[in-house]
Amino acid sequence: MLRPKFMSEAKNTQTAKPAQLGFTMPAEWEKHEATWLGWPHNANDWPGKFEVIPWVYGEMVRKISAGENVRLIIRHKRDEAQARHIFKKVGVDLRKIKFVVHPTNRGWTRDTGPIFVKRGAGAKSETAIVHFHFNAWAKYSNWRKDTKVPQTAAKLLGKKLFHAVFGSKPFVIEGGGMELNGRGTLVSTEECYLHPKIQVRNPGLGKKEIETALKDYLGVTNVLWLAKGPKGDDTHGHIDDICRFVNAKTLVLVKEKNSKDENYQPLAENWDRIQDFRLEDGKKPQVVELPMPNPLYFEGIRLPASYANFYICNAAVIVPTFNDPNDRIALGILGDLFKDRPVVGINAVDLVWGFGSLHCLTQQQPA
Q1: Does a structural domain hold residue 3?
Q2: Among 192, 243, 313, 360, which one carries the catalytic annotation?
Q3: What are the pLDDT digits (tens) for 71-83?
Q4: 313 a catalytic residue
């Protein structure tokens, strides 16, 4: 079990911004040292289905740990005992699991966990962590434990910690709200970060200011904006349900073909916009269509089921599936795009009742 070695805040906080120091955020498909996950414990995220969720984690960790370590955030020994029991049952090598003690409100580590930036290559490379001040998607009140996770990670790993600010105010963005190719281009959505009234993360900041902060803290040079995400997403338009890079030049973009579906028009607008996209080198990206599953409901609520919420780890690409005819089509498309690692499906019908899926739960630590 790992506990952080606490250092002075002054030593661990940098005045210069990451981009000024040569740091950039690597692409997800680049080699990882580890994947961070937060053990599930908030039954309110999956009311009526919580009992099965730890077993979904077991399958995720089995696939991820085949190629890298897993840093699992737990609250206490009881969480560790439950996790060990499930991992042993499903065949996880427990030597690959590093338990990190930190109190949490939720387990959506894509948004709450440490976001790593990197400079240099090979033996001279260095990673650091950016703290983007998570505030529960500007929607919920229980976030004050989660927002401290990057600080704990920096202390545990002995990494530089950059506190993201714009002016004198903390700057807020979540990992699920940005998609990068590791070469200078970042994609997000206007619905999520530029809407003037709904779930406003950074009051008073407009497009120009938000783009400046992204460039300063992630080392990107080119910020592109799609319009909206699918219905049911309580993050209000996270990009990782919509559009993902599969390599530096290629994007997959979800498409709803049923003109009567409520997602048809919002997702069609994204297809209109992406025709004008240019990468950091001025070239057009290759854009590959990814289907949407048929509408998935639970207790009458439309869930944000999307094949775009896959996670790229060292040993595989794990893709959410929904007992849907389009499962095999989506897996086939992604299998053709990822030639260097297998593409495998993980049933996410129960998981997506929490309004998130595989990518939402994971955060990569680059090698």
Answers
A1: no
A2: 360
A3: 999 999 999 999 9
A4: no
